[in-house]
Amino acid sequence: MFRPRLSRRHAMAATAAATVTAAVAFSASAGAFSSQDQARHAVQGGKAKNVILLIGDGMGDSEITLARDYTVGANGRLNMDKFPMTGAYTTYAVHKDGTPDYVTDSAASGTGWATGTKTVNGRISKTPGTDKAVPTILELAQKGGFATGSVTTAELTDATPAVLASHVTDRSCQGPADMATCPSDTLAKGGPGSIAEQSVNHKVDVLFGGGKQRFDQKVTDGKYKGRTVTEQARQLGYRVVTDNASMKAAKGGKPVLGLFASGNVPTEWTGKTAAVGGTDPQRCVTSNANRPAGTPNLADQATKAIQLLEAKQKSKHSKKGFFLQVEGASIDKQDHAADPCGQIGETAAFDRAVKVARDYAAKHPDTLVVTTADHGHTSQIVPLEATPPGLSSTLVTDEGQQLKVNYSTNTPGQSQEHTGTEVRIAAQGPQAYRVLGVTNQTDLFTTLREALGVR
């Protein structure tokens, strides 16, 4: 686990200060820094009362650029473009012997920032060789008296939310009926159980996302045997909500489990998927007939999560704040499916959640906000005259221009693949200077831990 020495921290702060001094005047017009004061405050370091970590799953630079070009224009700026500190971090996983595995999956990458430890693809917050559980930033935050929350557009048992409050050998072990690849983690073998069981057993204060099908599975052993995980959650004190109305009506003081879809939450936008030889120029449809009315969007989920976490701490008269992770999961899932409209719509939805976090931090400057991705992905913007060998689609942007998107990281008809590229990380608030330069994904764990002041 990486723990920076004091001298290194001072050196980083000095470097950050020099960077800001040189860059503030230049970048103010480009929107990289919202203000000189905000940038200087970020360099000062210090402790954070609250931390909001926003993860755009599969949201590499190409995915950000595509959403920017389509929605706000080539010279426009998304909310995620407006942070005062921007850097990049590497995302590689490792093999069991510790050697690098250059293309990560979401389980290994999430384990990196959640625990500060690299692991093998598919593993959730456990070591690569010995398969031992490693404490997560959420667990440390809970131990330190912070309220905690996790919000996602995927199943709550999917890899990125799972890394915070569970430890399993393989990411597929989402519910009690899904434990075939994790025999030593089963309750029958004295393990902690499935991801769903562990998540509610941790009593995370706010859990919002999809995955109702996992929580509907029955527990096979232990105290809650024969009951569904949802019933287990209720016995543990959770209020269960299933739509926007019940979510907004939820009061603070007890944990809340939001299950807004059987599987992944349906995307906000639709359109034609990419095809061999391309598609006719298309405008994206900014709706989805398969998305049930009453499904809360990611920004509303983030807003409510913050309200509930604040209420929890006020009810305890606690001076501590909260740790919240917010994931835009289907940027990745639509990239896998070579669906540019679905992908752009989910990036735009994620960007609105970024605005929620930044607006909150504007009123609560003791909040560290970080936005990043877990890994890169396949979509590329290519010239209109290009004839890619894989799948491509031509879009007509809000600027009235045509834009061609190419998906060629796998054979047409197969799921498109992640890439091993570094990805953007940006931040504001206490300890935000730590994201400057090129860092390692595991360094984010240290940034979050230092900001919260937990060990």
Q: What is the name of the CATH superfamily? A: Alkaline Phosphatase, subunit A
For the secondary structure, the number of strands is 16
Helix content: 25-40%
CATH topology annotation: Alkaline Phosphatase, subunit A
Q: Class by helix and strand content? A: alpha/beta
N-to-C order of helices and strands: HHEHEEEHHEHHEHHEHEEHEHHEEEEEEH
CATH architecture: 3-Layer(aba) Sandwich
Q: How far apart, in Å, are the first and last alpha carbons?
A: 12 Å
Radius of gyration: 21 Å
Shape annotation: globular
Main sheet properties: 10 strands, mixed
Number of helices: 14
Give the amount of beta strand, in percent: 15-25%
CATH class term: Alpha Beta
Folded structure, characterized:
The chain is an alpha/beta fold and 455 residues long. The protein has a single domain, classed as Alkaline Phosphatase, subunit A (3-Layer(aba) Sandwich), CATH 3.40.720.10. 33% of the residues lie in helices and 17% in strands. The chain has 14 helices and 16 strands. It has a 10-stranded mixed β-sheet with strand order 7-8-6-5-10-1-11-15-2-16, with helices on both faces. It has a 4-stranded antiparallel β-sheet with strand order 9-13-14-12, covered by helices on one side. Strands 3-4 form a two-stranded antiparallel ribbon. The N and C termini lie close together (12 Å).
